[in-house]
Write a structure and sequence with these properties.
This protein is of the alpha/beta class. The chain is 41% helix and 19% strand. Helix 7 links the parallel strand 5 and strand 6. The chain starts with a helix and ends with a helix.
Amino acid sequence: MDRPNRRVFTETLLTLAKNDRRIIALASDSRGSATLNEFATELPEQFVEVGIAEQNLVGSAAGMAKCGKVPFACSPACFLSMRSIEQIKTDVAYSGANVRLIGISGGVSYGALGSTHHSLQDLAVMQAIPGITVILPADNRETAMLTRQLVDYPGPVYMRLGREAAPRVYDDNYRPAIGKGTLLLSGEDMTIVAMGELVRSALDAGYLLRQAGISCRVVALNTLKPLDTEILLTAARETGALLTVEEHSIYGGLGSRVAQLLGECGPVPLTVAGFPDEPLVTGNQEELFRHYGLDAAGLVEKAKELLRRKQTTRL
């Protein structure tokens, strides 16, 4: 049964922490949002609650990392990435502290709570800070396996997780690697590139396009920084058109990174699917995806328009 990635993360972390006393979980009055109640109950000596003080959360985690601990600082992505960004930049990144920053309920996961609780700028600001690895798992399996890898991964990391149940993408044989993309569907006419919990929508759109006679490649990325440039340039060269999909502003995220890469290494037609530069309508996550064309049906229409542009460009 599909479950929220945040729940899978904390269950995995608890299992790891029982056998590794270096692991510390920190929360900013967010143990409920981060589903850390069980962790706090079972391992109280490895849990720190700082209250509504995200700056203190990050600063404390940085200090623990410098003392040999492996801190996982968990807070809603909207607050972690905005309220404590100076501490993330100075205490964590510039100091090279091995802190795992876990942004819970990222993107528009909080739905009707609105723009104050949306995190649509976090990827832009995090990837602009030197030294931070930026990760977005797609489903439960990828979340659990990447969480295990983070324990001994060198350097600061920001990992964004969603709030709702994440539909399955990968089978039991999948073995993720930080910084490496995955080819989910082969195709020759165009490529959809997605990350995080919109990978499922991208894959569904790929299948729908196949039914319409369009050979669509689907590439999933679990890491925005460092970016798997090899899989992206191969897709650009072999399919000639890319559609990027992200639960983020159209500025500064996956689409911007891919546009920069293509501009430097060989441009092809590109469409960036994300949230526009405007206040969003109110609704739950599913409604927002549908309204802004980020569900499978909306991505199919964007893909078809991209193919028309590709054909015109060739002429």
